[in-house]
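Minutes, methods subgroup
Present: GH (chair), OT, SY

1. OT presented the first of two proteins processed in the latest run. Sequence and structure tokens recorded below as shown on screen.
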Amino acid sequence: MDSATSEPRRIDGPLPCVKCLYDLAGLMSDQKCPECGTAIARTLESPDHRIVRHQERLRRSLMLIAVSMIGGNVWFVAAHVASALFVFSGRTLDAAYLAGFSVFAIIASALTVLSARGWHGLYQSCSQSWTLVTWRSSLLPLCAWLFAGCFSASAALASLPFVFGHNNYGPPGWGEIGLAVGATAAWCLRTVIGIGIAAELAMWLGRKRLATVLRLLRWTGPALLILSMVIVFYINTVDSPLLEAPGLVVLLVYGLANILAGITLLVVRRRLWHFAAAAAQREFAKSLSAPATQDTLAI
């Protein structure tokens, strides 16, 4: 129901204010929150008062995205630090290193699939329960699954020499370069679109600082990833060991930025819990009571 164009109705059932979480039950839809002065119409137009199944899907999607972001990048940072220590120590490739690389490839590929499911669920939640979806948002699930596929294929190709016992791992071929470019492009587009949606959600929830952090990370992550790819490509092309340390630093900052993004998404998800609980209470009360009357605003 469009509260801006319809006549004022009474709020039936618990409804937290989108800004301060004050319970607006019993108030009229054209009034303001007694606690913070925010118009009740803004809460009614936000995504937070929707039905339970949309709330659950949205929170589940944010959890999948955050877990894959935090877990994947913690693993990413640890793997690169271990690899750098291995190389700087002057050791040659051995069975332990090859086994560690294979484990990293398997876990990282699984986390990209988990992340793709989360981004796909976020898009479905947006398209079914609130109005932050634009034509760009339809690219979100496509980019998420494309990244998962390219990354997994690239990790598999990189593991083949180790699987067959070849320790002379040489420069990447055109197939590996194509997969790496495809994975990078898909990841950057997915991050710009997906984190942008999460920033808009944080704004709807009245969390401007969270939205600012997400908007910053929305562009920081892709910029760092592209820079690291350029450095790695240059090192492999001209064999410049002087760039190995700066390249490692850029990769570590990139991983830490993504970990921060995952933590921020968990905070947004925690904020949504209040609205999910209120939605569950409303649906439970509605199942026990008679249908809403004409003078009651059914949410």
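2. SY then presented the second protein from the same run.
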Amino acid sequence: MLAGVPVNGHSVRQVTSRLRGDGTMARLTVLAGLIAFSTTTLTSQQIAGVRATGSVESADQLMKQGHIAEAIQALVELASSPQPPKGARRELGIAYYRSGQLKLAEKQFMDAMSEDPTDSESDQMLGLTLYRLNRRSEALPYLERAHQSTQLSNIDVNYIMGRCYIDASKFDEARVAFATQFGIAPNSGAAHLLLAQMLLQVELADAAAVEARKALELSPGIALAHFALGKVYLAKGNTDEALKEFESEVKVNPSYPELYQFLGDLYIRTNQVPEAQQALTNALALDQSSTGPFILMGRLFLNDNDPQTAATYLEHAEQMDSSNVVTHYLLAQAYRRMGRKNDAERELVVVSNMHSDTNSKGKSPD
């Protein structure tokens, strides 16, 4: 995308973009926009010398060295000249993109394509810019057109296109895009399951259920399809069906720690104490890096009138993550039942302070 800029030994043209998490723009990592560039120090004389050459290549050199502001200044002069050199507006758009000035970048990419309708790089960069501006329906045609270009075939924007397709309710196209991204057959059970998981991330539970069931139809023994359906039922508040799906998942995927955490939680909710303890023991046997099973064990033993054992699990969870308000609240209950009034009061103070901090952060400044 940004020709020749080195990133960990590769050019930006070789760097793929990825979106992870819940789809919010805060978690977006796309190509050049959020890549950390080296900042080789140049003297003011060197910078002036590069700018004096008056070429797009010299401005690109400034960008390679991390001098974005100077590159923008040089490119503005080039792009506003009576006969701008080829690529000046595109490179100015890239510089604006890298500096987060997305509206200015959009204009430059539009101008670049007006000059040269075959400029696939500007096509793609405009699509990425519009995506970052949360204008996904507008971004999609540019991304599709650039993606079909052999010139840019090594740049992977399938994930971003898949998210745009989801926004447009074009789920078949989204499935193909995600499948291409992950290198799996687009009509396979795995591709339908992958789409189901993406749909769950954006809280499209009904559509996710359709895809998960299709995955099971094509691949009855596929792992995580029942787990996805269980999460769908949880989202709908149907704990009985969720429990059935999670129990079905155990039969095909018995070594997945997160599954047992979900099972333990549901067993606690339905007052199935032995089953809850077994599920959470399995979760901890497989993975002790998460506080979830420890907290649920604490809750389970509190419900079973065993505050001493509850405190053991909860204290371990607190050592792992002292910022979890639920842990401190449950510890307060355990300490109170054990007669440790001072410890219980200390934990309640922590809970109160956490709530106060949360409320203060949510207030607008005066």
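Chair's summary of item 2: The domain at 256-360 is CATH 1.25.40.10 (Serine Threonine Protein Phosphatase 5, Tetratricopeptide repeat).
Next meeting: continue with the remaining queue.
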